Amino acid sequence: MKSITLRRSQGFTLIEAMIVLVIMAIILAFGIPAFGDLIDRTRVRSATETVVEAFRIARLTAVQDRASVNVCPWNSGNTCTGNNWDRGIMVVNSKNEVIYRMQFNETLFVKKNNLSTNDMVTINPSGWTPNDMASLYICAGDGDSKNAYRITISMAGKVTPSDVAGSAECNGAG
Length: 174
Known about the structure:
four-stranded antiparallel beta sheet; 8 strands; alpha+beta; single chain
């Protein structure tokens, strides 16, 4: 009787290893761009939620203190001057005390529409923003609008975020 001996496998063949490498390359080719888009989307959404929270804090403070509160672009000082919303946002009460400040990541861009000439939103003691209806667009710094958000501040003081992916507002922002 013949004895059959089975040979143990000692590893992978070259062809098996090449097939695995090709499959990994295909997965990475599709996965890496999608991961970058996920990071941009998360940054923009996080900044949008923070700005909405800043406006809500401002409105609550104005009503509680029975005094006007300003929401404006963040500058190097503690006063509401300047018009560069790309650096960040701050909330300043009637005593010129900074209540809230948020610096934006350098990859974000904020575009404002319909703001009065002083480039700030004033919330009066009733919580309203008369004559300061505004929209802020928060986009990725590269100017791509596929992850854009709009924050609308109504004259009644209501702050509404909305996804405006694909709008032309952010094109060329970066």
